[in-house]
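hey so u asked for the seq, here:
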Amino acid sequence: MLGDDCAVQRCQLHKRRNVAELLPKEYQGSADQRLRTAYTMADYDQAKAQLLKTVDWLEGINPSAAGSLREGLEDTLTLHRLGVPEEIRKSLRSTNLIESALSVTETVMSRVKRWRGGDMRLRWTAAGLLMAEKQFRRIRGYRNMPKLLAALETDKDELASSERAA
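ran it, structure tokens below
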């Protein structure tokens, strides 16, 4: 399941930061609280309704902040839409896991002083990711991973059947 058919979960933390930086200081805390409340809701429809109310509220303060929240709003709720348990949603709602692995890889690769060919870059990238793997811990909710995989499979099947119907 790749490309346009791939379920995408955008980083909720980055979305909160992007919205906040477009707002005057006096509104940042309130906006962040509204977003945090929506993202911690268990129900997809309730979370989406809360985010849409926040978009409406932001329209009166700063239309750019409202637009920032509106852009990709659905993708910040993918785990909600899939019905993924809260415990694993907490671990996957931010890109920190990926960014940490890439940071270790970047550190390892920064030590290389002379690059010889393109496959050398691939080998050093792999070496960096293997180094990062040593620091990995179990994500919270890892026992729910089969539920996530089942939800992704169901989502893929529903997408395929809706495309056939169209």
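The chain has nine helices and no strands. The radius of gyration is 19 Å.
lmk if thats what u needed
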